[in-house]
Amino acid sequence: MKLLSPAISTLARLRSWRIEAWIQHPISAQREVLQDLVTAAQYTEFGRLYDFSSLFTTRAFKQAVPIHSYEDLKPYVERIMGGEQNILWNTPVNWFAKSSGTTSDKSKFIPVSEESLVDGHFKAAKDVLSLYYIHNPDSDLLTGKGLVIGGSHTISNLHDEAHFGDLSAVLMQNTPFWGNWIRTPELKIALMDEWESKIEMLADTTLLENVTSVSGVPTWTLVLFQKILEKTGKQTMKEVWPSLELYMHGGVSFHPYKEQFKKLIGEDIHYLEMYNASEGFFAAQDIPGSDGMLLFLDHGIFYEFMPLEEYGKDEPRTIGLKDVELHQQYAPVISTNGGLWRYLIGDTIEFTSLKPFRIKVSGRLKLYINAFGEELIIDNAERAIAATCQLTGTVITDYTAAPVYFSEDGNGAHQWLIEFEKEPEDLGAFTHILDEELKKQNSDYEAKRHKGIALREPVILPLPRGTFSQWLRDKNKLGGQHKIPRLSNDRKLVEEILKMLENQ
């Protein structure tokens, strides 16, 4: 296979002129994307409602079409799931990516069209490989297998024509023939949803493969690495897979995991961040290790950017690429070839470069914890806490929660710092009930908690009364509009409170 490496590198470089075209002409590339989207959907129900056939400019499009949340588009999506077509997009939509996301529903279902697969996800994947080979021309990446860890929901049928699963499962099920040549494991293992058995099967079937790259959520990847080392008796993954050169990750912050990866892998490899969501493949690092991800501008997605001060207004203002500024916080608003129109995805980003346009994900519009891919939002937490208090006869004054990161001592968890007005009679029972209520509220949390493989039961620390008030007082934020953040995706607040208590 190594004989093929120069040829593969050459093929990757042949794509470079296409990539370079939209990098050099980003505004015109985006203008063409929007025109193609509006033209394609002009005779759909949504297109007729907003008179797409008369929209010839970006300004006209923004004036005609309001910004939508998932709840706004949900009635259309449910009709498509029921078998109706030509609603949001002009070609049949038979696939739906299931995700918790930032809605109050336990799950949301994002329509996935043939165009969003071919011209979006798969085109972007090829561009990622092309960019990698351009910057690593001597790479042997495609002479071995890429291990894909994903698909925590098996494919399910809505009816004869419609199917759903999580994004990785949908992509695997629809992977073009060339993708199956370079991927491991086989599809029936990749789509298993019982994670304990799946990790065993992944380890058994891949430890003798020539794996050159791995992609997946960090928590599950670490679990797999540890299982393989246990089975082989090896000390590092480089002993198992000598040709391993790339780990691709996204969705959660990789920073807390990098040192563990270095230790388990044993040698330096490339790490590449991608921004690939159910709604589309938005960006990826064009240069491994660089600050920011290259924004993909010719992949069936038209972007607008909402300054954060506009969020929550009745008619929020958005800007285009030509007006964005470095290191300012924006909420992306997207229109896609899957039928999402001026859709607020819920992330916040900032630009790290304007030539070319590179971004990094800075957070979410709503309070959340997403350290393990669980996407726990404040609405989930509030509902779960309320139900738990009712079931246990407990009264809570205030609380905050943050992740406890995966370590050699144990799997990840959520740590809850709680001030009780009336404490539970049995803290263990309270913890268990809270855990079950969180599972009811959020399908991604439920998946990560399965048998405690990636996420163990919450860790609850009762606080002395007045702790939160003291923290606010120390920050000069006591009273008025100032509140304790309920959820944090890092441990800064929790550690500050714990240190304050230690000093006292």
The parts where pLDDT drops under 50 for at least 5 residues are none
Radius of gyration: 23 Å
Shape: globular
Q: Which architecture of the largest domain does the CATH hierarchy give at level 2?
A: 3-Layer(aba) Sandwich
Q: Kindly state the number of beta strands.
A: 21
List the helices and strands and how they pair.
Blueprint (H helix, E strand, L loop, with lengths): L4 H10 L1 H9 L1 H15 L4 H5 L8 H7 L5 H12 L13 E5 L8 E5 L1 H22 L9 E5 L6 E2 L5 E3 L1 H7 L3 H5 L1 E2 L2 H4 L4 H12 L4 E6 L1 H15 L4 H4 L5 E4 L8 H8 L4 E8 L2 E5 L8 E3 L5 E7 L22 E7 L6 E2 L2 E8 L2 E8 L3 E2 L6 E2 H15 L2 E10 L8 E10 L4 H15 L1 H6 L10 E4 L4 H8 L17 H12 L1
Parallel strand pairs: 1-5, 3-6, 3-7, 7-8, 8-9, 20-21
Antiparallel strand pairs: 1-2, 4-5, 9-10, 10-11, 11-16, 12-13, 13-14, 15-16, 17-18, 19-20
Helix pairs in contact: 1-7, 2-3, 11-12, 15-16
